[in-house]
Design goal:
400 residues; four-stranded mixed beta sheet; three-stranded mixed beta sheet; elongated; disordered C terminus
Length: 400
């Protein structure tokens, strides 16, 4: 197999290793490549790497990280680790990092880049290009420029491509997109990431409560947020707690711990089936043919509930549903389940009549209608859980 050479390939290889092996492999990398690889790793794997480094190497890695990457790493760390990390940073980096960590957990402010090129609205294009050349080296992203007025309030973004192609004598105030969507720093990061998808913007500018520019959410950071959210959705949909780190490197006991709770709940729920069967024991003894259809009824109900749950999780994941929509969606899924039950009942009535007679087939068909309607209704609200990133309600603001 060819040895990985790209930063993301090396990061994937390191994430598959044990804690000790991962630290050793990371320490063998050249400094510049090591930093690129480190930024490609998830926060959990970054913590594993740092735990295996000496104090001086530990602090050097933190110092070289971009502020948003450092904040993303430290937001999951214990308070003692955060205190130790901040103490070893230079004064400027410590101040920036502390400011990002001061925003609510899961908010845009925690993951935004504070290094944005800002330009006054009264500049000419030629003057602005020279200013970008000077400021751009210290910025994390120069593809989106921020145009501000004299009071430092944000007017809107200006793509670098538009600036370069514009006439040198044009003013920035005539080029800025004043209707572009911006996001508040305190809003959920996932909603801001989905806002990038919906508006097709390369980056989103982030403002404070007074509409002053404080940062930028880049497209790549937004995709990381969405990947984490989607991974959480898939894990919960399969009946497990979401885990951190690379799947290959996750220990057996940790995976079992993440899955045990949901399996225990399902086991308890399964006892209800036993109690129902026991309650109708006499009927089943008299009409033994009914017992043949119990697995089919359970399977049909499980499938109907899983379909409703999958649809709701997908809608929640892409921001199509809010908690206030629950009654409306519940009523709709009940009707969908009822319709599906009727369709299956018609099929089951014909098939059942050929094997056990019309009377038993009619009971089974009626049961299919009730089971599918009930399963679709219950499967829907059982998947409405709170997000790690906060509310599912999006927020945005336009400047006209």
């Amino acid at each position: 197999m060819q040895e990985p050479t790209e930063a993301h390939e090396i990061a994937d290889s390191i994430a598959r290793l044990s804690d000790v092996e991962a630290a050793l492999e990371f320490r063998s990398l050249p400094k510049d490549l090591g930093l690129e690889v480190f930024e490609e790793l998830e926060a959990f794997d970054q913590q594993r790497i740092l735990s295996g480094l000496r104090e001086d190497a530990y602090q050097q890695v933190l110092e070289d990280l971009h502020p948003d990457e450092r904040s993303r790493l430290l937001q999951e760390a214990p308070a003692t680790v955060v205190k130790r990390a901040l103490a070893g940073l230079s004064a400027g980096e410590r101040e920036v990092t502390a400011r990002l960590l001061g925003f609510p957990r899961g908010s845009v402010g925690r993951i935004m880049s504070p290094e944005v090129v800002t330009l006054p609205e009264d500049l000419l294009v030629g003057e602005a290009i020279e200013l970008v050349r000077g400021k751009g080296r210290a910025a994390d992203n120069v593809n989106t420029l921020a145009i501000v007025d004299r009071s430092r309030r944000l007017l809107g973004p200006l793509p670098l491509s538009l600036l370069v192609l514009a006439e040198p004598s044009a003013r920035l105030s005539d080029l800025v997109d004043r209707s572009a969507v911006v996001v508040a720093a305190t809003e959920p990061a996932e909603q801001a990431a989905r806002l990038i998808q919906e508006t097709n913007q390369a980056n989103l500018l982030v403002v404070d409560s007074e509409h002053r520019l404080i940062g930028l959410l880049s497209y790549d950071d937004a995709m990381e947020v969405l990947e984490e959210a989607d991974s959480e959705d898939v894990a919960r949909l399969s009946g497990a707690e979401p885990w951190e780190g690379h799947y290959v490197s996750v220990g057996v006991f940790r995976l079992a711990r993440y899955r045990a709770l949901w399996l225990s709940l399902l086991l308890v729920a399964a006892t209800l089936t036993v109690s129902v069967t026991q309650a109708f024991e006499d009927t089943l003894v008299k009409v033994a043919a009914l017992a043949l259809f119990i697995p089919m009824l359970i399977g049909a109900g499980g499938n109907a509930g899983a379909q409703a749950a999958t649809a709701s999780v997908r809608a929640l994941a892409v921001g199509e549903l809010r908690f206030s929509d629950l009654p409306r969606v519940l009523w709709r899924e009940f009707r969908v389940g009822l319709l599906l039950g009727l369709m299956l009942a018609a099929l089951g009535l014909v098939v059942g009549a050929l094997f056990v007679g019309w009377q038993v087939a009619l009971v089974v068909a009626s049961s299919l209608v009730v089971v599918c309607a009930w399963a679709a209704s219950i499967g829907e609200p059982c998947r409405w859980w709170p997000r790690r990133s906060g509310s599912t309600r999006p927020w945005c603001r336009r400047r006209w």
